[in-house]
Each structure stands twice: as structure tokens, then as C-alpha cells.
Fold this protein.
Amino acid sequence: MSNKETPAKPVNKNVLWIIITVLLLIGNIILIVRLMNAKGDLERYSEPADEISNLEINLSDCFVRLDDAIAREKDKDRQVTRLENQVKKLRKEAKDKAGLSRQAVREFQNSGLRNPEKEIIADLLKHPNLIPAKSGVVEGMKFFEQNKILILSRELVFAPFTDGTKSGKMIVEYSITSDGRISWIPIKAYEGGI
């Protein structure tokens, strides 16, 4: 028996199954570790994605609120324009209705005033001391020009005033003596826009 080969021992099937099971177990452990790492990566990347999504929602909400604010501002601008037009119309109506009646004009002419409305306004312009508002400039407060002053009745005048920086308006009572002199009594003054 010199060259005879020794027969190979048969492989124990149990050992083979143990080796395969161990290899599968190691493979599963590696797979689980990789899945856990991948899950961590996904979680790490999902947080910024969620944050970006939330920021996009907030940005969209801000745009909606901005559009609403712009619409409200436009509505207010239209309302201001409408109110300014109403004020202009009312001022024109007041100016058209203001003035002296024919009877008052005749009475004042009998007192010595040739053109009562112009002379009353001209006399008021000479009395800026009637304006109770304090001025911030050397020249002091003055009444607006003649066309802004309104004679409301045979006793009252509406007179806006300014010093160039501040302004206001006032109601002044007047009376005309039998010799044509005009006396003045301030009734009420309001500081602020005219």
C-alpha cells in the first residue's frame, strides 16, 4: 500500500450547518449595523428637511400676511382719498354757504363799511394777537391769506392760522360799532392740521 490514497473523511453535516449558521449570523449582524447607521443618517438628514419644510411654511404664511397688509393699506389709502374728497366738497359747500346775508351787508354798509366781507377779513388780518397758540418762530402766528378766512355769519368768522411750522384754526366773534369799527373776541382755537 504504498501509493494508495487515504480516503477523505466525510464532512460532518452538523459542523457544516454550524459554519453556515455562524456565517449567516455574522452577515446579519453586519447588515443590522449598516441599517442602524443608515437609519441614523436618515434621521440626521430628515431633521434639516423638516426644518426647511417648516421654514417654507412660515415663509409662505409671511407672504400671505404681507399681501393682506398691503391690501389693507390700499383700502385705507382709498378711504383716506375718499374722505379727503368729502372734506374738499364740504369746505366748498361751506364756503359757498358762508358769508353775510343781504340784510347784514346793508346793515354793515349803513355802519360805514363799503365792502363788509372784505373789510371784516382785512381787519382780522391786522389782529394776529387774537391767536392763542404759541409760535416757535420769531414772526409768530399769523392768519392765513384772505381767501382761507370764512365769514360764517353776522357774528362769527372761521380763521385758519400758522407760523410756517405749526398751524390751527379758530372761531372768532366780531361786532361792528355804529361808526364802522370792528371789535374781536376769540371763541375757540384748535391747534393742528387745517
